[in-house]
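Example 9 (inverse folding). The structure is encoded as follows.
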């Protein structure tokens, strides 16, 4: 079992280790509030706080809440961004929710649990129709989305990849 928690300075070492593990493995740091783009935890954390509400969101972004997915031992196993609304770019290739799970914790059902918990957060925020996208070649992510009720609407082809767009309707 995992739980979603808000990042705090108590998680600094684990967040930086998470970033390093993805860089080592050459994986995409999805759902991390742009962690790859920051040199220090402090810079990332300040941006995360700025981007958590409409009044202070940084230019070109939408308000979002970033969660850490931690296991029963409080170990960081995944990260997730829940965007409060969509802009044109997110409508095409980002959606309301982005997530990642560290490589050594994959295939344990964490992504499915994370998405389920994020959908509960969407309900609290009255986001009742949730868009989630993934690379067509990311079969695990597509399965995670479908396991949480995602229905494929369409695919968007770009020069780099084919993005699948799934909608989940909450009641």
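The amino acid assigned to each position is listed next.
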């Amino acid at each position: 079992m995992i739980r979603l928690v808000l990042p705090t300075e108590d998680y600094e070492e684990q967040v930086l280790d998470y970033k390093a593990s993805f860089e080592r493995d050459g994986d995409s740091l999805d759902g991390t509030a742009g962690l790859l783009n920051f040199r220090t935890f402090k810079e990332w954390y300040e941006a995360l706080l700025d981007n958590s509400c409409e009044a202070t969101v940084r230019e070109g972004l939408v308000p979002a809440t970033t969660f850490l997915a931690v296991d029963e031992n409080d170990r960081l196993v995944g990260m997730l961004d829940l965007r409060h609304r969509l802009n044109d770019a997110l409508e095409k290739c980002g959606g309301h929710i982005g997530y990642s799970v560290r490589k050594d914790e994959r295939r344990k059902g964490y992504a499915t649990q994370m998405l389920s918990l994020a959908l509960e957060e969407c309900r609290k925020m009255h986001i009742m129709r949730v868009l989630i996208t993934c690379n067509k070649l990311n079969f695990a992510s597509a399965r995670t989305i479908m396991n949480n009720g995602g229905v494929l609407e369409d695919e968007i082809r770009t020069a780099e990849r084919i993005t699948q767009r799934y909608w989940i309707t909450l009641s």
